[in-house]
């Protein structure tokens, strides 16, 4: 039993990585920090003429799409025991580590703990919490279908129905009508379950990789996505006034297809062979470090120092100032993460990773 658990966990940590996927993760993490800089530092909201509206629409769906793509496994074939061990590992990395940083952040910023726990946002640390909920649901459905023969198409149909059902049920107009006597909507972060459809699409893209690659290689899908995406960008205010949720979904899906395909066809440029590729890949492999630490580093209330910029954001100036602040926050987050990883115990506790201790031969070789 112990040997089986150890082999499974080693397989989790040593699984092969696709460099351009790491680069995409790094790119989306940069966008995440930039969105938080605009919202937390400059108090620029989505109703202002700003980049934040478009970035917000694409960023979170893309994160869940990539999470579904890289996290796909056929748990039904692996069996119940293996699935439990993998979920145990994910619980430690996504829930335990997030809880530690969450408690530290709540204490440092003097946030009411009960209110933070009962809120959908969890003081910003909701993503890993919701991602584990998605993994738990995903594994449970797969294990249920292990007894059903020729279950692949039916299983995919159930996943898609769940994704669409959650998306519709979590629309504000519907969610506010659901009775919530015990505050479970906030405790379970049900508001964010609308992103499950993007997690499912990422999982299906990996499962049916040949079909997915064929669609991206064809000209029809990319052309349609380009036309739709830029038309919506040009007519954004008019489009969202028609139907906000539908327009956001179309923009998210077309943006995901375009960005993913761009990184895919330029995979050599976004590999470890180039400086840009190495940087994005490194950030993509350290997303947890940045996600957990950057909240502590966001400079708040900068709107007091640059009031005109915050009230009337100019896209070019906004982008340059935001990029400079975001780059500094990411660099400091990575540096602090690297320092914390020097301790084998803290590396395991805070990031869920076991660092291999250097042998005397390795030390001698470096010298």
Please give a structural write-up.
The protein is mostly helical and 367 residues long. Helices cover 74% and strands 0% of the residues. It contains 21 helices and no strands. The chain has helices at 2-13, 19-41, 52-70, 75-78, 80-108, 113-118, 126-144, 152-169, 172-175, 184-187, 196-207, 209-217, 219-234, 236-242, 244-265, 275-285, 287-297, 307-311, 315-340, 344-351, 360-366. Helix 13 (219-234) crosses helix 15 (244-265). It is globular. It starts with a helix and ends with a helix.
- Number of beta strands: 0
Q: Tell me the series of helices and strands, N- to C-terminal.
A: HHHHHHHHHHHHHHHHHHHHH
Main beta sheet? none
Oligomer: single chain
As residue ranges, the low-confidence spans are: 1-15, 363-367
Chain-averaged pLDDT: 83
Percentage of residues assigned to helices: over 70%
Shape verdict: globular
**How many H/I helices?**
21
Structural class: mainly alpha
β-strand percent reads: under 5%
Q: Determine the N-to-C terminus distance.
A: 40 Å
- Rg from C-alpha positions? 21 Å
């Amino acid at each position: 039993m112990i040997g089986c658990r150890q082999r499974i966990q080693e397989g989790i940590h040593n699984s092969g990585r696709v460099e351009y996927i790491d680069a995409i993760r790094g790119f989306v993490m940069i966008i995440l920090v930039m969105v938080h800089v605009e919202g937390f530092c400059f108090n620029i909201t989505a109703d202002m003429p700003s980049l934040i509206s478009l970035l917000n629409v694409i960023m979170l769906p893309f994160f869940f799409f990539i999470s579904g793509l890289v996290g796909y496994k056929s748990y039904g074939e692996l069996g119940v025991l293996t699935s439990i061990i993998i979920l145990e590992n994910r619980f430690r990395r996504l829930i335990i580590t997030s809880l530690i940083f969450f408690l530290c952040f709540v204490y440092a910023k003097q946030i009411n703990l009960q209110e933070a726990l009962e809120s959908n946002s969890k003081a910003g640390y909701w993503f890993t919490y919701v991602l584990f909920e998605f993994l738990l649901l995903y594994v449970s459905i797969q294990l249920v279908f292990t007894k059903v023969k020729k279950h692949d198409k039916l299983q995919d149909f159930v996943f898609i129905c769940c994704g669409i059902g959650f998306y519709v049920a979590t629309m504000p107009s519907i969610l506010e009508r659901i009775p919530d006597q015990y505050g479970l909507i906030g405790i379970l972060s049900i508001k964010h379950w609308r992103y499950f459809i993007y997690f499912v699409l990422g999982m299906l893209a990996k499962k049916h990789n040949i079909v997915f690659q064929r669609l991206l290689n064809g000209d029809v899908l990319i052309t349609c996505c380009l036309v739709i995406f830029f038309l919506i960008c040009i007519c954004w205010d008019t489009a969202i006034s028609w139907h906000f949720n539908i327009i956001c979904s179309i923009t998210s899906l077309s943006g995901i297809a375009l960005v993913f395909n761009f990184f895919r066809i330029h995979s050599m440029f976004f590999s470890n062979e180039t400086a840009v590729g190495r940087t994005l890949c490194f950030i993509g492999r350290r997303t947890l470090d940045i996600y957990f630490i950057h909240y502590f580093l966001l400079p708040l209330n900068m709107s007091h120092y640059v009031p005109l910029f915050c009230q009337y954001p100019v896209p070019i100036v906004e982008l340059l100032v935001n990029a400079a602040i975001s780059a500094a926050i990411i660099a400091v987050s990575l540096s602090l993460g690297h320092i914390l990883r020097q301790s084998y115990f803290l590396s395991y506790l805070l990031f869920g990773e076991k660092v291999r201790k250097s042998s005397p031969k390795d030390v001698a070789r470096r010298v």
